[in-house]
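Why does residue order matter? Because the sequence determines the fold. Keep that principle in mind as you read this record.
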Amino acid sequence: MTQRRSLAEWLRLQEVVHGLTIDLGLERVAGVARRLELLPPASRCIIVAGTNGKGSTVACLSGILRAHGYTEGAFTSPHLLRYNERIRVNGAEAGDDELVAAFEAIDAARGATTLTFFEFNALAALYVFRSRGVEFAVLEVGLGGRLDAANIVDAEGAIVCSIGMDHMDWLGPDIESIAREKAGVFRSGQKVVLADPAMTPVVAAEAARVGAMALMSGRDYSHEVEGATWSFRTPGLTLEHLALPALPGAIQLSNAAASIALLHSMGLSRPLQQESVSRALRALRLPGRFQIVPGPVEWILDVAHNEPAARVLATNLAARPVAGRTIVVAGILGDKDVDAVARALRDVVDAWVLCGIAAPRGLPAADLRLRSPVWADAKLAADVEAGMQAAASIAVPGDRIVVCGSFLTVTPALELLGLY
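Structure:
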């Protein structure tokens, strides 16, 4: 009898089956999904696109749904430490055996069709959600939108969190091209929320073109901080004295408001309630998103890896005064606009430590320093562990150390600090 592959063995196999890490397109993955009868994966589906903010928005949507008694499945990527983090049902990670069963079914159904690692991932999420019979599937777009594997689902609702310059090699050289790719998740009759009031008009124009019903922040709904609470208002729904999201940073209010606006527009059978929404927001947890580790020297971990995310990180740091210096340990992949990230952070940073990332798109610290004049005096470290040690050696009580630049930078930091 053939021995069953382990989860680790399946993941290694998926890295080589197709030959390309990224191969945008829906035909192959949709064909396998149809053979497995995975479309739709739940009676109600939501898709979340955007340059930044997708993970926390998915967490908001999922938490609010659970707090109101709905069963939900959430699909996100990438993971920090465990692949299982990518597929959750009612807040709990899918188990190894469950994922292996999904991969076995996908592999049998694909025949001669090759799938990328991410396409296996997306199909496994849909398989688990169908098997569990969840009421809501909340899907995060991996890259872009129009040709991303998550977009094989005709979602009832969509949120576009933000539009910024990232993945230009795949999505286009300017903000308008990128916006059109993100807006490729829209469908006729779909409820769409545009979470950023400053979002390029191209997104709203695409929604109108396909016949989606767009709600815009500041026009169709609003939120306002009121001391230690906040309020949300849209026609037909007012929620006052809401708990602030447990995830730090003002951007989380925007994500929470977009989540509430979408769920209300979808006409839930159990209307949103202040107490339930507040309970969900207080319970939000998302490692590596402005994650604060208190101590004589404070540590802050943030996966910010592009210019828009770096600007949000800079804003959050400026809003959190520190008695001493801010020391940043940065490791950034080579296909990012590294100089733009450095410039976005420079006004809130007193000292830099650059670290290498040993990955296909990673850069040694010395090469990273050459990418930006901001880093002319930066210290260099071979890897994240060495970078954290170098930062800790120059920090004194009252200073803070920020580790940022990539999931591949924050993951070892979480492990080294004993947080995960």
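Residues 36 and 105 are 8 Å apart (CA to CA).
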